[in-house]
Amino acid sequence: MENLFENQDIIDINIEDSVKASYLDYSMSVIIGRALPDAKDGLKPVHRRILYAMHDLNISSKSAYKKSARIVGDVIGKYHPHGDSSVYDALVRMAQDFSMRAPLVDGQGNFGSIDGDNAAAMRYTEARMTKISEEVLRDIDKDTINYTQNYDDTLKEPTVLPTRVPTLLLNGSEGIAVGMATKIPPHNLNELLNAVLHTIDNPESTAEDLMQFIQGPDFPTGGTIFGRRGIIDAYKTGRGRVKIRAKHHIETKGKKEVIVLDELPYQVNKSRLIEQIATLAKDKQIEGISEVRDESDRDGIRVVIELKKDAMGEIVLNNLYKSTPMETTFGIILLAVHNKEPKVFNLPQILNIFLAHRKTVIIRRTIFDLEKAKARAHILEGLKIALDNIDEVVQIIRSSANDGEAKEKLQDRFGLSTIQSQAILDMRLGRLTGLQRDKLEAEYQELLALIAELEAILKSEDKLNEIIKEELIEIKDKYSDERRTEIEDSYDEIDMEDLIPNEPMVVTITHNGYVKRVPIKSYEKQRRGGKGKVAVTTHDDDFIEKFFVSNTHDTLMFVTNMGQLYWLKVYRIPEGSRTAKGKAVVNLINLRPDEKIMAIIPTDDFDESKSLAFFTKNGIVKRTSLSEFSNIRSNGVRAIVLDDLDEIVTAKITNVESEYIMIFTSLGQCIRFEIDKTREQGRSTRGVRGIKFKHDTDYVVDADVIDNVEQELLTVSEKGIGKRTLVEEYRLTNRAGSGVISMKLSQKTGSVIGEVLVDESMDLMALTSIGKMIRVDMQTIRKAGRNTSGVIIVNVDKGDKVVSIAKCPKQDEEIEVDENGNVIRYNEDGEIIEEIAVEDKSQQQSQSLKDNLEEKKED
């Protein structure tokens, strides 16, 4: 054994590198050689080889059918080194009019059905090309494409076909490669060609421009595409999802309704669908169906679903769409191979690749025809010389010992080429007649005109484009048909903001993380010192911790104690009654364990002139441009880097008018410094120190951004004591100082819980730990100096305390419904503003909804 490897080189190979290289080779073989279509001709290798083999066998659309086994044998024997079943399956699909929008194979025999029946064995079926597949192969013999060696290097096969038809989009394609997949839906040929013609004149056309011509996918089985958003996404980005529904109509049978399915979604098995509907009806999972039967014939699909006497067709239909393949989703992935590289394309890119391929084919065809014409003209020029000197030519030929000597003498005497002299020797005596001489001269003149025309095409882009247009129009006139798949607008795609009134809401967050929104008019206004109404029903271990007043169309940014920022529209928060518990916020945003929301900030834009200021419990402050938070992921983004044991207390928006930052602590300290002392920083930064504590037990409870010193601050303690104080009374200091006293504290006041900027046009809302919400008019709260305690503004029960305060709009009017059902609006003085009949209101709302939907459709 030791001598076995003598005189042989042994190479050490890392097994990881070997496996990696081998798998990469395998994956590229699958991607390029099997699973994905080429972007130029839209065909996978197996389909291309089937058509080329049929071309080799001269099986055109006009020739006799040949056994499928003969075609499959040629394909696997010459070009496709795989199993015969895979080739036959591909050939069968190319012949199925329910699989391909424009079948490329004309099959005779049993080629399967929409019920899932398999095709007969290939020894029984016969096939030939369809007329449109001949357009895919047109000009293949004119050196229009490149060839490569077949698998055993004995023959050559085309790398791509010179198609005149945009086959990639016409018939679509599906395939799963290694690490990628393609799923391209079929389209209507007429629409595709119109889009290509538009692209020729407008090379910079966008997806929106092309959608004037291409409405969307057009499936061979028809059906209805429900909604346009997936189509737009697919054409713009190369990826999208469309819903396809069965097309139906409703008939009446006595007093009962009958649902009749006329067309099915693409790739849905009819017999399985009927079986599934019958099973659901039998198990009473779908109520109202009495019988299901298949009445389909050669004229088309007809699936009859008879309903029970009291059943409503629309309700049954909706249940069927939800529970059966009567509604399917087609995930579009416009992935194809271009220049041996797999890539996802958008609609303009695919059409431009097809156009570039057509230009290449026409240029190569023109060069081929030009060279052929020049070669023929060259021969004719020699024949003309011979005819003009026929007596001398005959004498030279008669005096020569053999053909070689004759050719040499003719070349020397008349300056002919070898080809010309050979043509003279091959010339028949019939050419010597006067008529033949005239024909030769006419042919020569035609060739000169053809050569001039072909050379002009090669020199002019416009002429090249005109030829492409003429050929596409010819294809369009021959093969175009009507669209089969309808496209309907989906109301689900209408922007919810178009249908939701923009009105103020109170958003509440409990300590245990339950959120809800309640119309602000649900809270009645009370005089200062009132007891208030319970705002939410909570468990003994829960209480309202945060609340905010915002409009339904606003965007809410949720800033958590851990420094994460989340993004949510107000109208997406479930609406509840005043006493409702709400919904767990973890169901709306992806909070992590132990993560609590500390600030809810509304905004209607993410302008770069604005910034978001973050304040931490340990006195750190940081500003970041608001534009950095305009596109938040579902799991949020890191807004600030926090020190150990530190957490976010609040966050505020700043703008160009903001001048100062004010930070308040639990033990009654406050600092005011200029906002420019904190520069804007990126998201993943720590920030700078804002305030220095005098006591180790102190911490930040609130902070605000101030526009000018003439503003007033309302400071509130946990025992309901509060006061209004001018900003200018808080001395301006440098950042990172200890500040000044904001409130004189005692056992009666408790610690400071927060502050708000005073706005007498608004009310104050205060929440207590047991869930009471109290509304107070800010005008009734007394002004006091900075170093004072203030007055009672909220009466709290024993053991209860104020946990949060916020501003809200005044409630200037009341609404009630009288005994006649009319809605009556009152102002603060009890005067009637307006009376609205319920019927009129409903009509107004209905008309407004219709108007919004129509506007959305036009958009």
TrEMBL record:
MF terms (GO), sorted A to Z: DNA topoisomerase type II (double strand cut, ATP-hydrolyzing) activity
Root EC class: isomerase
InterPro entries, sorted: GyrA, GyrA/parC_rep, Gyrase/topoIV_suA_C, Topo_IIA-like_dom_sf, Topo_IIA_A/C_ab, Topo_IIA_A_a_sf, Topo_IIA_dom_A, Type_II_DNA_Topoisomerases
Active site: 124 (o-(5'-phospho-dna)-tyrosine intermediate)
PROSITE patterns from the UniProt entry: TOPO_IIA
Enzyme Commission designation: 5.6.2.2
Main location: cytoplasm
GyrA-box, short sequence motif: residues: 526-532
All residue ranges annotated as the Topo IIA-type catalytic domain in the record: 36-499
Other observations noted: Few gyrases are as efficient as E.coli at forming negative supercoils. Not all organisms have 2 type II topoisomerases; in organisms with a single type II topoisomerase this enzyme also has to decatenate newly replicated chromosomes.
Subunit structure of this chain's protein: Heterotetramer, composed of two GyrA and two GyrB chains. In the heterotetramer, GyrA contains the active site tyrosine that forms a transient covalent intermediate with DNA, while GyrB binds cofactors and catalyzes ATP hydrolysis.
Function: A type II topoisomerase that negatively supercoils closed circular double-stranded (ds) DNA in an ATP-dependent manner to modulate DNA topology and maintain chromosomes in an underwound state. Negative supercoiling favors strand separation, and DNA replication, transcription, recombination and repair, all of which involve strand separation. Also able to catalyze the interconversion of other topological isomers of dsDNA rings, including catenanes and knotted rings. Type II topoisomerases break and join 2 DNA strands simultaneously in an ATP-dependent manner.
Family: Belongs to the type II topoisomerase GyrA/ParC subunit family.
Protein name in the entry: DNA gyrase subunit A
Gene that this polypeptide is encoded by: gyrA
